[in-house]
Amino acid sequence: MGLYSIGVDLGGTNLRIAAYSPEDGLKDVIQLSTRRPDGRDAVIVDLCGAVESLWLRFGGIERCMGIGVATPGPMELPEGRLLNPPNLPGWENFQLKQELERRLKSLVIVENDANVAALAECLLGRGREFHVDSLCMLTLGTGVGSGIVLHGQIWHGMNGMAGESGHISVDPSGPLCACGTRGCLELSASATGLVRMVRERVSLNPDCALGDLFGTNRGFTASDLFDLAKRGDCDSIEIFEILGQALGRGLSGLVNSLNLPLYVIGGGVASAWEMFAPRMLDALGQGSSLYRLTDPRRSQEQRIAKAETHVVSAKLGSNSGILGACLLPFKVEVPVRMVPEVVVK
Question: Which domain holds residue 51?
Answer without folding.
Answer: 2-120+318-338
